[in-house]
Amino acid sequence: MCGGGCSGLFAACSAAENGAKTVMLEQFPKDSGSGVRDDLAAYNTRIQQQEGSPLDPAEMGNFMWQQASGYSNQRLFNVWAKESGETLDWYADRIEEAGFKMKHQLVNPPADQERSFSCCVGVDWGTEGIEMGSTANNGQYILNPYAESIGVDCRWETKMVKCIKEGDRVTGVIAQNADGDYIRFNAAKGVILCCGGYLGNPDMMAALQPDIEEVTVYNWTWPGTNGDGIKAGLWAGAAKDPAASVSSWEQGLVPPDMVVAEAHDTAETLWTGPLPYLRVNLNGDRFMNESSFFDTLGHALQYQPGHTAVQIFDASWKEDAQQFNVYGAHRYFPYDNGLASLFTIDYVEETMNGQIESGLIVKADTVEELASKIGVPADNLKVTIDRYNELCDAGKDEDFGKPAYRMSKVDEPPFYAARFAQQGSHTMDGLIINEDMQVLDKDLSVIPGLYAAGDNSGCYLGITYLGNAAGNAAGRSVTFGRHAGRHAAQS
Predict the structure, then answer these.
(1) Could you give the CA distance from residue 70 to residue 278 in angstroms, rounded to a whole number?
(2) For the whole model, what pTM was predicted?
(3) Is there a smaller number of Cβ atoms within 10 Å at the N or the C end of the chain?
């Protein structure tokens, strides 16, 4: 098992539970790697059965496949639909054994609101119990000791270097420990690559995704996402997704006197960025439906001056945020069943106040003053805001088709503005796999003994992350990791 993150932990536990002697290699010290995300997409879990979920997995799978423009294996969606419920039930048992509880991220939108795939579950960590660090990493504090308790040989600070291939079969890996010593691990059952993507590798990003780099302020990603597993698979003869892609969030702050190309050292997050407030370009023109998937802003910025957008909102921004009724990582209010959001509106406001004080977000009492501070033409910005407010009053966005409940007027001072672009999250292209997570070669035949899961693998998310199904990538990672571990152990 190469990698002890989201997919790797589930794969290691699954392999051990199915009787395989399992070694898990993790390049970082214990409890400091990528861990297990707090929001995980799944279908037909016990929790969803209890609380109700309108999810149709066939509808979701078909929608995702079309969003990916076919850059995926549609049969993998069936694997997710069939096995994700059991996977999350297993994880819920581990969570409950540790004294916590898992809940469905339950949102029951009115009939006039956008269709969402309400399939995400999250952990209700509460305020009591052990100190667990970042909520997005909490799962590792539970699964690391569990893995060790069932016999997984966890080798911390031990990095996979390359696969060993004898004939057509991958038979092990070479790894390097913290002392710099190289170790050979022989694998009778198989090697599972769960080393993540390559967003943390500037050379690979520049080579494979230069267009995305042009619209990205900075790349936030898990430690160690250097593409090592993808490169190891390629060196072993594997094929890779033909289309490179990245999931990025529209929340990379750009200083008001800069454009993206000048702001790569800023590394500040605009927490309101993913919310559908008014967006304009540097000419003050509105240019898109703001209620779109995360990475569509990055695509749209390819056609805008300076590859930079401006977000505009007013004094009622908190009330508007609640009206927008988003869910997932960018929901800042409790869910309908009381599950706390990953980040709270108070945290967002506190962070925003600091950014106003530092000058990254500008604040003004008039639109003209706001335009001057953010560096866009005042006359044109006023025309744009007036037009937008008319559409809000009419309850119909005749210009870009944004849903009415995602429309919020800009008419109550003080007014706020921030330049922003994309903040990289994770790459979505990886090694080509079949429905058993076996890696395929360039002839699309199985490479015996080699598996991949998580962002190390491809064939699933395609070229556009499905933003209205929260926890999609992480839910896929844990489900496919568990499947890979079981299949390898039983091979």
Answers:
(1) 32
(2) 0.92
(3) C
Distance between alpha carbon 52 and the CA centroid of its chain, in Å? 25
State both tokens at 142: 């539970």
**What DSSP designation does 433 have?**
B
Task: Write out the DSSP string of 308-348.
Answer: -EEEEE-TTHHHHHHHH---STT--S--TTSPPPSS-HHHH
Pairing of strands 153-156, 159-166: unpaired
pLDDT of residue 118: 55
Dihedral Cα 266, 267, 268, 270, nearest 10 deg: 110
Residues 6+ apart with CB under 8 A from 367: 378, 381, 382, 385, 410, 415
**DSSP structure class, residue 183:** E
**What b/e string do you get for 236-257 counting C-beta neighbours within 10 Å, with b at 16 or more?**
bbbbbbebbbbbbbbbbbbbbe
- Sign for the pseudo-dihedral over CA of 39, 45, 51, 56: positive
Enumerate residues 6+ apart whose C-beta is below 8 A from 401.
Answer: 289
Sign of the four-CA dihedral 343, 345, 346, 352: positive
CA distance linking residue 118 with residue 103, whole number of Å = 12
CA-CA distance, 260 to 254, in Å (whole number)? Answer: 6
pLDDT at 150: 97
> DSSP character for 383?
H
Residue 72 neighbours by CB distance under 10 Å: 23
Instruction: Give helix 139-149 / helix 74-97 axis angle, nearest 10°.
Output: 80
What's the DSSP call for residue 262?
Answer: G
284/450 Cα distance (integer angstroms): 52
Count the alpha carbons within 13 Å of 461 in the hemisphere toward its beta carbon: 33
User: Any idea what the Cα angle at residue 395 is, between residues 394 and 397, rounded to 5°?
Assistant: 90
pLDDT band at 488 (very low <50, low <70, confident <90, very high): very high
Per residue in 73-104, pLDDT tens? 999 999 998 999 999 999 989 988 988 888 77
Q: How far is CA 289 from CA 83, 299, 390, 421, in A?
A: 35, 13, 16, 15
Contacts of 350 (CB under 8 A, 6+ apart): none
Task: Give the HSE-up count for residue 63: Cα atoms under 13 Å, Cβ half-sphere.
Answer: 15
CA distance 304 to 219: 21
Angle 301-422-27 from CA coordinates, rounded to 5°: 145
